[in-house]
């Protein structure tokens, strides 16, 4: 998101990634570790080759130290993303995706692309999906009125991207709606 500082009224993509790192993901540990308590909760025990659920931040840390493999979420597959892309391009409404899909997929592909089958194809599908959803967002913003904007199934990153435009537009629309009322009182 390359907006001037004056228009940034929302969270940065890096901050959204940090928030998304609290999501639980499955890993296949390569080391044994007893149950360990952290501020966010206790995780473990880790026993190879049994899968374990840990927060994404912990999975990243273990992966970078070559102490686990990250199991990609069930939605981070070529079949799932192709199906969602075809829905996006053929239906007017947004298809249902995990709320933090953009952040989680970016982090997993950046850190553990070797654990994701067809990582390059998935990157391409994610890019196409993002572009299709951005086009729908722009179309929805063009149909904005002073009372509401209904774009169900938007994800965290997408909401964050349209927030500055939406806030500014709603402010202007509110002024325009109030001006005729003020003029009517002047007569």
From TrEMBL:
<dbReference type="GO" id="GO:0006260">
    <property type="term" value="P:DNA replication"/>
</dbReference>
<dbReference type="InterPro" id="IPR056784">
    <property type="entry name" value="PSF2_N"/>
</dbReference>
<keyword id="KW-0235">DNA replication</keyword>
<dbReference type="InterPro" id="IPR021151">
    <property type="entry name" value="GINS_A"/>
</dbReference>
<dbReference type="InterPro" id="IPR007257">
    <property type="entry name" value="GINS_Psf2"/>
</dbReference>
<feature type="domain" description="GINS subunit">
    <location>
        <begin position="75"/>
        <end position="175"/>
    </location>
</feature>
<feature type="domain" description="DNA replication complex GINS protein PSF2 N-terminal">
    <location>
        <begin position="12"/>
        <end position="71"/>
    </location>
</feature>
<dbReference type="Pfam" id="PF25005">
    <property type="entry name" value="PSF2_N"/>
</dbReference>
<comment type="subunit">
    <text>Component of the GINS complex.</text>
</comment>
<dbReference type="InterPro" id="IPR036224">
    <property type="entry name" value="GINS_bundle-like_dom_sf"/>
</dbReference>
<protein>
    <recommendedName>
        <fullName>DNA replication complex GINS protein PSF2</fullName>
    </recommendedName>
</protein>
<comment type="similarity">
    <text>Belongs to the GINS2/PSF2 family.</text>
</comment>
<dbReference type="GO" id="GO:0000727">
    <property type="term" value="P:double-strand break repair via break-induced replication"/>
</dbReference>
<dbReference type="GO" id="GO:0000811">
    <property type="term" value="C:GINS complex"/>
</dbReference>
<keyword id="KW-0159">Chromosome partition</keyword>
<keyword id="KW-0539">Nucleus</keyword>
<dbReference type="Pfam" id="PF05916">
    <property type="entry name" value="Sld5"/>
</dbReference>
<dbReference type="GO" id="GO:0007059">
    <property type="term" value="P:chromosome segregation"/>
</dbReference>
């Amino acid at each position: 998101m390359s907006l001037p500082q004056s228009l940034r009224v929302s969270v940065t993509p890096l901050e959204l990634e940090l928030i998304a790192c609290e999501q639980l993901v499955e890993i296949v540990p390569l080391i044994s570790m007893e149950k360990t308590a952290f501020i966010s909760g206790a995780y473990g025990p880790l026993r190879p080759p049994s899968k374990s659920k840990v927060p994404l931040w912990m999975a990243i840390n273990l992966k970078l130290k070559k102490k686990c493999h990250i199991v990609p979420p069930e939605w981070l597959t070529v079949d799932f993303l192709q199906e969602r892309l075809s829905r996006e391009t053929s239906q007017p409404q947004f298809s249902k995706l995990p709320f933090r899909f953009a952040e989680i997929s970016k982090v997993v592909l950046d850190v553990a692309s070797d654990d994701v089958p067809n990582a390059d194809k998935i990157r391409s599908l994610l890019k196409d999906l993002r572009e299709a959803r951005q086009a729908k967002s722009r179309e929805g913003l063009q149909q904005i009125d002073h009372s509401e904007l209904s774009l169900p199934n938007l994800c965290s990153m997408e909401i964050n991207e349209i927030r500055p435009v939406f806030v500014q537009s709603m402010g202007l629309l509110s002024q325009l709606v109030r001006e005729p009322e003020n003029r009517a009182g002047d007569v």
